[in-house]
Amino acid sequence: MKINVRTNDLVKMSDSARDYINERVGSLEKLFNSSENVVANVLCKGFDKYTVVEITIPLKHVILRAESKADTLYAAIDFATDKVERQLLRHKQKVNTMIKKRDGIANHFSQLEAKDEIKEPVDVSKTKVIDKEVMSVDEAITQMELLDHDFFAFVNEANHRHSVVYIRKDGGYGIIETKE
After folding, report:
1. C-alpha pair distances (Å), 25 with each of 72, 127, 149, 170
2. In this predicted structure, what is the pLDDT of residue 155?
């Protein structure tokens, strides 16, 4: 597994911190069948009172990503690595149960025992059916704000694609659209 570490100007990366990142993120290597093509990108961002660590592992059919905020760099590394590991194990279990005989993404994961906490099926507690509403992006943002939601699904009048507008963590807006 190759580990790329980047920082912003506020994070002073010592050799011991870099070694700790390599050790913690490198421990995920045991979860892959072949880790030679796996690249983990680690971004450490420092702010006045906290540190944010983002770990992104792009694979052939899925991108694993976790972000963690903590008072110290080491705590943020631990939290983010634990999130990626849980995400990876959860995804591995889904892949192994749904497409056992099919080639592809299942080949990325080694045959490890799934943890007990991951064996629980996902419980969908609510399903909501919405009308297809054709509107502009500005109208969708207004609707989302009026409903006090974090996202809003609509049909974009500019291209007639199913779209979702959402509030980003930085306070801006984002749009997710389907391909034609």
Report:
1. 17, 37, 35, 26
2. 93
Q: How many CA atoms lie within 13 A of 103 on its CB side?
A: 0
59 Cα distance to chain centroid: 12
The angle subtended at Cα 59 by Cα 53 and Cα 62, nearest 5°, is 85
Q: Which domain holds residue 78?
A: 2-118
| Range 18-25 contact pairs with CB under 8 angstroms and sequence separation of 24 or more | 20/74, 20/77, 21/77, 24/77, 24/78, 24/81, 25/1, 25/55, 25/77, 25/81, 25/84
Domains of the chain: total: 2
| pTM (predicted TM-score) | 0.57
Cα separation, 29 vs 161, in Å, equals 39
Residues 12 and 95 in one domain: yes
Predicted pLDDT at 12: 77
